[in-house]
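Design job #97: recover the sequence.
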């Protein structure tokens, strides 16, 4: 299940940047389609993440924190795309996104359930 979760969020990040690039190049229809596919990947991330969270025998607060930060990352992805499409400023959201991604990656790779990277 860990590999499905990691693949889903990796593909979601790629789809996010593809949708952003399509929008910036003026291809609104393509951007909208990729954005809808990205929303399906949000659901995959949430389902696999909650299956991982509730599949462990003892849930510690660090896993709950990682789940909360993961929700923060997903919300930042969505809010950046929406603000960009409305031609509004999103620099604060980008800062939050970078902080949240770094935090969730650190938590995900350092907790015992994740892969051993740190």
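Job complete. Output follows.
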């Amino acid at each position: 299940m860990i590999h499905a979760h990691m693949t889903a969020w990796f593909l979601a990040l790629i789809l996010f940047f593809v949708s952003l690039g399509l929008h910036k190049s003026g291809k609104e229809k393509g951007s909208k389609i990729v954005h809808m596919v990205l929303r399906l990947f949000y659901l995959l991330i949430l389902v696999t993440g909650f299956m991982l969270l509730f599949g462990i025998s003892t849930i510690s607060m660090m896993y709950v924190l990682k789940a909360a930060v993961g929700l923060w990352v997903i919300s930042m992805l969505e809010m950046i795309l929406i603000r960009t499409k409305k031609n509004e400023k999103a620099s604060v959201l980008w800062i939050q996104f970078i902080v949240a991604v770094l935090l969730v990656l650190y938590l995900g790779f350092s907790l015992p359930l994740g892969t051993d990277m740190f």
